[in-house]
UniProtKB/TrEMBL annotation:
Family matches, as InterPro entries: Glyco_trans_9 (IPR002201), LPS_LOS_Heptosyltrfase (IPR051199), RfaF (IPR011910)
Organism encoding this protein: Rugamonas rivuli
Keywords in alphabetical order: Glycosyltransferase, Transferase
GO biological process, one term: lipopolysaccharide core region biosynthetic process
CDD domains: GT9_LPS_heptosyltransferase (cd03789)
Protein name listed in UniProt: lipopolysaccharide heptosyltransferase II
Length: 371
């Protein structure tokens, strides 16, 4: 797969008309949009599919087999930058796109394919984007699960999918190469002969979505009691470094590796692909683990486990489903965060332990999610 910051000239000489997909700005949303690409590839097997994505999200698309080229957006977050978008659209025009799928709901991103003269522009109504989007879908009430929400763009707007049809949608799918995994493990000092269990204690949306660090530490101790050679890998962004440090403090010896802020997103993908299992809050790393088909335990508090569940063969969505949840708030409006605090390590271990038992030597020799 190629990658570019700016499109090249004359890409379409002697090639089929291309499809452009404009990525969401969040990692988890990008992963859950991947089934749309599977549907587009099946409908148009001869057309290259390019993805226009923010730099922070682009590594996710590079792990998807359906993507021919990833173009990185040069725009500042939140800025209109109309002149810059017009210049970029002129470059896109030379690539010969037949259609564009605009996944963000903002006017800013709908402007780009319109300025580029792309004939068919598919997306949701969003910020009153009449004219900019000329194949317009509308949100449902209540909202569809995220995979179905994006996948619906592959069908005509009037084609409302029933629940059984949605259940038959393809699952998000990513892959990491064996050499990629080996290189990352070697660089970070992880022993490929020892099993890895990955924890993702962070969550971009807010503190209410975070399972307490002491609970993650308690779960790590249960994992180590079962298999003392396990390497507990703590993943996240630089903002998660302190939370991961709190987890590591509660793990005996040197079994915990705090890699929050020390890895790129591509590194995190490789480490998750190498893991026997992943335990994560409702976050982008959760959905990456699901798309890599790793055994995954997903922890839900203020968010709805039915809206964005994991799809791995071995997956558990754990929620106490309290009367006050899902509140969808960044911080607990009641001040107690019972939806996460009362979700005990023992309860999570009941789901994780059989997953580890089903993975010989934990992840040793296991190849799902690899290419």
């Amino acid at each position: 797969m190629k990658e570019s910051v700016l499109p090249e000239k004359n890409v379409t000489a002697g090639t089929a008309e291309r499809i452009l997909v404009i990525s969401p700005n969040w990692i988890g949303d990008a992963v859950m949009a991947q089934p749309l690409l599977q549907l587009l590839r099946a409908a148009h097997p001869g057309r290259p599919i390019d993805v226009l994505a923010p730099p922070a999200v682009s590594p996710v698309w590079r792990q998807m087999a359906e993507v021919d080229e990833v173009l990185e957006t040069p725009f500042r977050h939140g800025a209109l930058q109309l002149r810059e978008r017009w210049k970029y659209a002129r470059l896109l025009r030379r690539r010969g796109y037949a259609e564009a799928y605009v996944l963000p709901n903002t006017i800013k991103y709908a402007l780009i394919p319109w300025l580029a003269g792309i004939r068919r522009r598919v997306g949701y109504k969003g910020e009153s984007r009449h004219g900019l989007i000329n194949v317009m879908h509308r949100d449902e009430t209540p909202p569809r699960p995220m995979v179905a929400f994006y996948a619906a763009l592959a069908t005509p707007p009037q084609a409302v999918q029933s629940a059984p049809e949605r259940a038959a949608l393809p699952r998000p799918r990513m892959a990491a190469g064996v050499q990629q995994i080996a290189a990352v493990c070697a660089r970070l000092g992880l022993d490929p002969a020892r099993p890895i269990v990955a924890f993702a204690p962070g969550a971009e949306f807010g503190g209410a979505k975070r399972w307490p660090a002491a609970h993650f530490a308690g779960l790590a101790r249960a994992v180590l009691e079962r298999e003392g050679a396990t390497q507990i890998v703590l993943l996240g962004s630089p903002k998660d470094k302190d939370a991961c440090a709190d987890v590591a403090q509660g793990v005996p010896g040197d079994a915990a590796f705090n890699l929050a802020g020390a890895t790129s997103l591509a590194d995190a993908v490789a480490l998750i692909a190498a893991s026997a299992a992943v335990v994560a809050n409702d976050s982008g790393l959760l959905h990456i683990a699901s798309a890599l088909n790793r055994p995954v335990v997903a922890l839900y508090g203020p968010t709805d486990p039915d809206h964005a569940p994991p799809f791995a063969d071995l997956a558990a969505s754990i929620s106490l489903r309290l009367d006050c949840s899902p509140c969808r708030q960044r911080e607990c409006p009641l001040g107690h965060q019972d939806c996460m605090v009362k979700l005990t390590p023992e309860l999570v271990w009941r789901s994780l332990q059989p997953m580890l038992a089903a993975t010989p030597g934990h992840a040793r020799g296991h190849a799902q999610g690899h290419v």
